[in-house]
């Protein structure tokens, strides 16, 4: 397996019949938020390269980490065009759960036979997990008896921190809010700073920087519950990160989160109900979660199953129907 970035005359001389080209985040190869012209130019080049992959006998698969790219989403025309191209050019589409499979099938009219459901693996033992929650709070200066709601991860507008902060304002006096992660946008960081300034002093622990792998346990295990208030999501590595540390999750009842979170490991809320996130955040305070039970639940989500799915794909030829669907000329 080779991790590469298309350049030059790729795939000529690189891709051969039977080779597999696996796409994860295709928008990285063509999208330029500041320039529609550059986006369309690189879009055309990337499409031609993928067509060459097929003409050379390469096999194209796509792992659908999201429905549309988070930067611009379905509102950016070039994203809509590329998604429709890639679901037709790919011979297999990997999705992380039955609910995302239904979403992809409905949105892009994808034949079910083209979809392969594989679990998103857990993060147990991937990151250090050596300190107790009480130690984590002590090191971060959080009160031992407070209920801590947390958000840990890359901070971008689609993750909807504004709603989390606004909802937290209605929580009980002993609650604390922890937000930790890197902000790619200085404007978004400034907006969150302004919103946090309205909260009483001492109610928030804010660490707007990249969290090193060795420090993840500190921030996640300091939380009583991790809140994932995303505006749009197909699958969530952040939810699995929290659960891998035995911390319950509050998340919207959408996509892979619908398949992942049940009453034993968190609370799903209705994203269309403005008051349900507030209810979810209050409800988790009245429930007892078993961290070892949470870890045991996500331990069943093994990366080896994803690897097995890839091996099965490599060891069997693509269904004839899929080749015909892609290769036949337009009528």
What do these coordinates show?
39% of the residues lie in helices and 13% in strands. The protein is of the alpha/beta class. The protein has a six-stranded parallel beta sheet, sandwiched between helices. A four-stranded parallel beta sheet has the order 1-2-3-4, with helices on both faces. The longest helix has 20 residues, at 36-55.
Strand and helix map with partners:
Layout (H helix, E strand, L loop, with lengths): L19 E4 L12 H20 L3 E5 L13 H13 L2 E4 L2 H11 L6 E3 L15 H8 L6 E6 L8 H8 L6 E6 L5 H11 L7 E4 L8 H6 L3 E3 L9 H8 L4 E4 L2 H6 L5 E4 L6 H8 L7 H9 L3 H13 L4 H8 L4
Helix pairs in contact: 1-2
What key attributes describe this structure?
single chain, 331 residues, Rossmann fold, 2 domains, 6-stranded parallel sheet, 4-stranded parallel sheet, 13 helices
What's the total helix number? 13
Q: Strands across the major sheet, in which order? A: 7-6-5-8-9-10
**CATH domain fold name of the largest domain:** Rossmann fold
Give the SSE string: EHEHEHEHEHEHEHEHEHEHHHH
Shape: globular
Helix content: 25-40%
Computed over alpha carbons, the radius of gyration is: 22 Å
Compact description:
This protein has 331 residues and is of the alpha/beta class.
């Amino acid at each position: 397996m080779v991790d590469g970035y298309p350049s030059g005359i790729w795939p000529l001389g690189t891709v051969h019949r039977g080779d597999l080209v696996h796409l994860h985040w295709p928008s990285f190869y063509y999208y330029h938020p500041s320039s529609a012209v550059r986006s369309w130019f690189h879009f055309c080049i990337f499409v031609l390269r993928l067509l060459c992959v097929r003409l050379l006998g390469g096999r194209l698969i796509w792992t659908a980490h999201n429905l549309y790219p988070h930067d611009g989403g379905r509102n950016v025309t070039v994203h809509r065009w590329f998604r429709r191209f890639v679901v037709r050019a790919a011979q297999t589409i990997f999705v992380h759960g039955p609910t995302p499979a239904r979403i992809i099938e409905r949105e892009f009219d994808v034949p079910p036979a083209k979809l392969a459901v594989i679990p998103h693996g857990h993060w147990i033992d991937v990151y250090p997990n050596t300190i107790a929650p009480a130690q984590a709070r002590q090191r971060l200066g959080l009160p031992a008896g407070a209920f801590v709601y947390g958000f840990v991860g890359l901070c971008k507008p689609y993750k909807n921190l504004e709603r989390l902060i606004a909802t937290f304002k209605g929580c009980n006096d002993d609650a604390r809010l922890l937000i930790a992660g890197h902000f790619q946008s200085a404007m978004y960081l400034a907006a969150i700073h302004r919103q946090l300034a309205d909260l009483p002093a001492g109610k928030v622990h804010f660490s707007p920087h990249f969290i090193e792998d060795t420090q993840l346990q500190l921030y996640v295990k300091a939380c009583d519950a991790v809140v994932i208030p995303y505006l749009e999501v197909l699958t969530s590595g952040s939810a699995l990160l929290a659960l891998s540390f035995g911390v319950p999750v509050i998340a919207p009842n959408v996509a892979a989160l619908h398949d992942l979170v049940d009453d034993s490991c968190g609370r799903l809320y209705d994203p269309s109900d403005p008051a349900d996130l507030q209810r979810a955040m209050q409800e988790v305070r009245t429930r007892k979660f078993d961290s070892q039970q949470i870890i045991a639940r996500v331990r069943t989500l093994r990366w080896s199953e994803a690897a097995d799915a890839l091996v099965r794909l490599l060891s069997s030829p693509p269904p004839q129907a899929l080749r015909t669907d892609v290769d036949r000329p337009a009528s």
